[in-house]
């Protein structure tokens, strides 16, 4: 976390040459700067947790390593095993999977399921300390301030509030395909819909996104209309001319909706194979599925894979595992030079280093970059769901199988029509 900066290296050489900042002491004759940093040491320590890699450095009962919870620590009673037991003891190094039977016998059911939901990289990279308060594990002053506020409230200095739903709400708002300034300006509107209980636009938007699950397109139209109302109000107030209407802003989103429906699979360049991957999850069954389809530049199927994962992973985590499965499957077949393609924009951008990966999949992304050199992946590509149907169908079919199912130069019946549609449409 800034360990390569000049300031960090100077302070480390002076005050903590043999340890890290978390275990540093104030020392003798400290400077004002160092005194100030040490004052915030407890706060930094509060916001850190381990990101599981191979588990060798993480103590099961003492360290913070669970992805959720108020303490990130295991709360299940320690009935057996030593206090020094490592997370590595819960991982099968040969299959790079959790030892589910051990977890079920060791932890309470909810903590066993929570542990199983942590995706492990096939490369089992080293464990890493990350900042738990941000999505990408990077420290920010803003997140530290939020942590201070939450700690202040939890000690009885204010009303406690679970901000999980609120964070989910704003995450949905900022992910809408609209200008951020439109969402921010519209959230300031005060209005009372005739058939609703909302008294502000934010309340109305909450109802659409969190309760009615209206979808991105309808919610985007709602925000853009509200933004135009707000803009017109300001123009009238200041005596300015306002010729445009809300429909002028809504129309581009109607066009975009139509564009999405015509996104097709595109063959890979000559000499390269196309590795399409997708993931699916079945929360009621605590299962997930992975589908991999490998084709040549003419769209002819070379191989396909259908895999079931016995863990209740999140959507993003199972998508990342699907990308990893595609790489491993191609390596197993001895393929060289290919394009890895899926419909997760977050994972795709992370692999292309266009964005920081979320902490939950960062280890997998790093592992895929290591594995890609074995296969010779020359590009990572993103495609919409409509252009990734064969892999999606296989991922959904995974719940029907017990073990991995592999097809070599043989077309699975369930994706025959989807494969033909891709070739005819390309």
UniProtKB/TrEMBL annotation:
Any idea which GO molecular function terms this record carries? nucleic acid binding; RNA-DNA hybrid ribonuclease activity
Which Pfam family, giving just one, matches this sequence?
RVT_3
Instruction: Extract the InterPro entries matched here.
Output: RNase_H-like, RNase_H-like_dom_plant, RNaseH-like_sf, RNaseH_domain, RNaseH_sf
**SUPFAM superfamilies with a match to the protein in the record:** Ribonuclease H-like
Q: Where is the RNase H type-1 domain?
A: 276-398
Gene3D superfamilies per the record? Ribonuclease H-like superfamily/Ribonuclease H
The regions listed as transmembrane in this protein's record are none
Task: Please indicate which superkingdom the organism of origin belongs to.
Answer: Eukaryota
Record PANTHER family: OS05G0353850 PROTEIN (PTHR47723), POLYNUCLEOTIDYL TRANSFERASE, RIBONUCLEASE H-LIKE SUPERFAMILY PROTEIN (PTHR47723:SF19)
Question: What name has this protein been given in UniProt?
Answer: RNase H type-1 domain-containing protein
The species is Lithocarpus litseifolius
Q: What is the lineage of its organism?
A: Eukaryota, Viridiplantae, Streptophyta, Embryophyta, Tracheophyta
């Amino acid at each position: 976390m800034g360990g390569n900066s000049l300031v960090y290296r100077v302070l480390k050489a002076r005050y903590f040459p043999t340890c890290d900042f978390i275990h540093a002491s104030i020392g003798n004759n400290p400077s004002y700067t160092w005194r100030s940093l040490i004052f915030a040491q407890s706060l930094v320590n509060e916001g850190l947790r381990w990101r599981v890699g191979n588990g060798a450095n993480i103590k099961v009962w003492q360290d913070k390593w669970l992805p959720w919870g108020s303490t990130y620590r295991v709360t299940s009673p320690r009935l057996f095993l030593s206090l020094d037991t490592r997370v590595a003891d819960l991982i099968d190094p040969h299959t790079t999977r959790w030892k589910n039977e051990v977890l079920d016998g060791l932890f309470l059911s909810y903590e066993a399921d929570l542990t199983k939901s942590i995706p492990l990289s096939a490369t089992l990279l080293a464990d890493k300390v990350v900042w738990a308060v941000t999505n990408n594990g990077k420290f920010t002053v803003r997140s530290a301030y939020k942590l201070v506020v939450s700690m202040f409230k939890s000690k009885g200095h204010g009303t406690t509030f679970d901000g999980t739903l609120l964070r989910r709400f704003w995450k949905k708002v900022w992910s809408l395909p609209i200008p951020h300034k439109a969402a921010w300006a519209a959230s300031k509107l005060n209005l009372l819909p005739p058939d609703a209980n909302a008294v502000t636009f934010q309340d109305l938007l909450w109802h659409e996104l969190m309760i009615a699950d209206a979808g991105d397109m309808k919610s985007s139209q709602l925000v853009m209309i509200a933004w135009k109302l707000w803009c017109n109000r300001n123009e009238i107030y200041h005596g300015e001319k306002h010729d445009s209407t809300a429909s002028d802003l809504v129309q581009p989103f109607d066009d975009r909706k139509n564009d999405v429906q015509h996104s097709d699979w595109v063959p890979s360049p000559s000499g390269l194979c196309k590795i399409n991957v997708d993931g699916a999850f079945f929360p009621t069954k605590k299962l997930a599925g992975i589908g991999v389809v490998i084709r040549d530049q003419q769209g002819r199927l070379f191989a396909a894979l259908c895999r079931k994962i016995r863990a209740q992973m999140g959507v993003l985590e199972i998508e990342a595992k699907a990308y990893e499965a595609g790489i491993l499957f191609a390596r197993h077949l001895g393929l060289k030079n290919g394009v890895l393609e899926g419909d997760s924009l977050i994972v795709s951008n992370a692999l292309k280093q266009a964005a920081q990966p979320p902490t939950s999949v960062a280890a997998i992304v790093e592992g895929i970059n290591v594995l890609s050199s074995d296969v010779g992946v020359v590009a990572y590509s993103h495609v919409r769901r409509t252009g990734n149907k064969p892999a999606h169908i296989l991922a959904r079919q995974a719940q029907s199988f017990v073990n991995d199912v592999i097809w070599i130069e043989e077309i699975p019946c369930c994706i025959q029509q989807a494969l033909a549609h891709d070739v005819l449409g390309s």
